[in-house]
């Protein structure tokens, strides 16, 4: 398992182009779209377009890196900490993180924890 850190200048996106290698023991069952051929191929060919379809609109200066998981090596994304969360406890921060953020198709948002 390798953890990839998102930063203000780099956004990581995880895909498995050969099959559907997914860290399901950590994240649960993979979403249907993760295993689909269109997602797997487009994530490599047009990662920004795929991200935009998920509502992730990154500034042009942010580099998008695509990581291809294998049966031997799985990737997880460490999402960026959202602004305004400096006073949050580790448990409160953990509650903000979604499966999509941990594979790069989503961003962590503070409003997700407000109920």
SS content category: alpha/beta
CATH superfamily: Nitrile hydratase alpha /Thiocyanate hydrolase gamma
Q: How much of the sequence is in beta strands?
A: 15-25%
Radius of gyration: 14 Å
Number of strands: 4
Overall CATH class: Alpha Beta
Average pLDDT taken over every residue: 91
Number of helices: 6
Assign the CATH topology: Nitrile Hydratase, Chain A
Runs with pLDDT <50, length 5+?
none
Overall shape: globular
Number of structural domains: 1
> SSE string, helix = H, strand = E?
EEHHHHEEHH
Largest sheet: 2 strands, parallel
Gap from first CA to last CA: 33 Å
Give the % helix.
Answer: 25-40%
**Could you say what the CATH architecture is?**
Alpha-Beta Complex
Biggest β-sheet: strands ordered side by side in the sheet: 1-4
Task: Describe the fold and architecture.
The chain is α/β, with parallel strands linked by helices and 115 residues long. It has one domain: Nitrile Hydratase, Chain A (Alpha-Beta Complex). Helix content is 31%, strand content 17%. The strands form 2 sheets. Strands 1-4 form a two-stranded parallel sheet. Strands 2-3 form a two-stranded parallel sheet. Helix 3 crosses helix 4. The mean pLDDT is 91.
Keywords:
two-stranded parallel sheet; two-stranded parallel ribbon; alpha/beta; Nitrile Hydratase, Chain A; 115 residues; 31% helix
Topology of helices and strands:
Elements: E1 2-5, E2 10-15, H1 24-27, H2 32-35, H3 37-45, H4 47-53, E3 63-68, E4 75-78, H5 90-96, H6 99-103
Parallel strand pairs: 1-4, 2-3
Helix pairs in contact: 3-4
């Amino acid at each position: 398992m390798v953890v990839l850190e998102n930063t203000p200048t780099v956004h990581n996106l995880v895909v498995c182009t050969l099959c559907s290698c997914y860290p399901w023991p950590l994240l649960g069952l993979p979403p249907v779209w993760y295993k689909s051929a269109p997602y797997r191929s487009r994530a490599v060919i047009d990662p920004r377009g795929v991200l935009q379809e998920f509502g992730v609109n990154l500034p042009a200066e942010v580099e998008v890196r695509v990581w291809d998981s294998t049966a031997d090596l799985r990737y997880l994304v460490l999402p960026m900490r959202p602004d305004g969360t400096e006073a949050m406890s580790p448990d409160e921060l953990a509650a903000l993180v979604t499966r999509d953020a941990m594979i790069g198709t989503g961003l962590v948002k503070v409003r997700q924890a407000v109920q």
